[in-house]
Amino acid sequence: MSSIRLFILSSFDELGAMHGHRLRLEAEHKRVHLWTDISVGAVYGAMKRLEAEGLLRESGREREGNRPTRQLYEITETGRDALDMLRRTELSEVWFKPDPFDLALTRMDSTSLETLPSVLAERLATVKARLAESRRVREEAHDRIGLAKQWALRHTEYRLEAEITYLTDLLKVADDIVADERNAPA
What fold, for 3-92? Predict the structure, then answer.
């Protein structure tokens, strides 16, 4: 998954030369953290890595008023080629990261077993709250974002809805899991 690379390269391709602070503001303005795994604060380090790979290059310096001089960067032809590849790849690849929850579920000890039903209920409540927040944000932003961004936000909602279905079903069999684990051969 190359979300931050895709965001940075596409931003430079779209907006032209800029400094890292402007890119960071662009990430905040576009609220990319709502539908990606991008941490806005990671933009600077990622830009340096892209420069080291030859995908970005320094294109000058800029100074506004009393602010410090800032380096301007631009996308290279190699960066545009990488961007084209990233766009094709990220639209076609299916990416699901394994959830550490599944490993923890299969590695419970006696304390974990005792608390499993309550932990599952709490997890379910947390996921429901995230879904409600995601819907609120999408509805609030509806008139200010394009259709693609609306569907990117909706994708998160579909995933949360699936997790709610899974946890609801898992909670129904939590007592059976506890009993099975207690009676499992050593």
Answer: Arc Repressor Mutant, subunit A (1.10.10)
pLDDT in tens, the chain (186 residues): 478 899 999 999 999 999 999 998 888 887 777 767 777 778 888 999 999 999 999 999 988 888 888 999 999 999 999 999 999 998 888 878 888 999 999 999 988 899 999 999 999 999 999 999 989 988 988 888 889 888 988 998 999 999 999 999 999 999 999 999 998 876
Q: Collapsing DSSP states into helix, strand and coil, what is residue 186?
A: coil
Report the distance separating Cα 39 and Cα 50, nearest Å: 16
Domain ranges of the chain: 3-92, 100-182
